[in-house]
Design goal:
The protein is an alpha+beta fold and about 120 residues long. α2 packs across α3, α2 packs across α4 and α3 crosses α4.
């Protein structure tokens, strides 16, 4: 005997409930919110549009605030093993990340450079 529709949720209802559930893949660091599942990033509530590579670099930095990441570590986080990029490419990505965040907040200073070592996301 089939279950009544009053007790069994429809596919549309369960899909809507799943979409409404909060993302388990949120990274929140002060004013920064990154959603891995939706591939979105906001700073102080304003959306910052990032490329896939920029998102992966920022994610690697934001996951461990205060921890220095070398250019090689950031390349590993952002690129497949079969892709060769010069370590200065990471510098270019960092420069573009800063520019995008400064367009939203002129006082953005959360990505620090440690000359000769790498980069880190500031602890708050």
């Amino acid at each position: 005997m089939p279950a009544s529709s009053a007790t069994t949720p429809t596919r549309a209802e369960t899909g809507a409930a799943a979409d409404a559930a909060p993302s388990k893949a949120l990274i929140e660091r002060g004013a920064l919110v990154m959603d891995e599942e939706r591939h979105t990033c906001t700073w102080k509530g304003q959306r910052v549009t990032l490329t896939v590579t920029e998102f992966l670099i920022l994610q690697a930095l934001a996951l461990r605030p205060g921890v220095v990441k070398s250019r090689n570590a950031l390349m590993d986080a952002a690129y497949d093993d079969q892709v060769y990029v010069d370590d200065r490419t990471i510098d270019s990505h960092i420069k573009r990340l800063r520019k995008k965040f400064k367009a939203v907040d002129d006082e953005f200073e959360m990505i620090e450079t440690l000359y000769g070592v790498g980069y880190r996301f500031k602890e708050q």
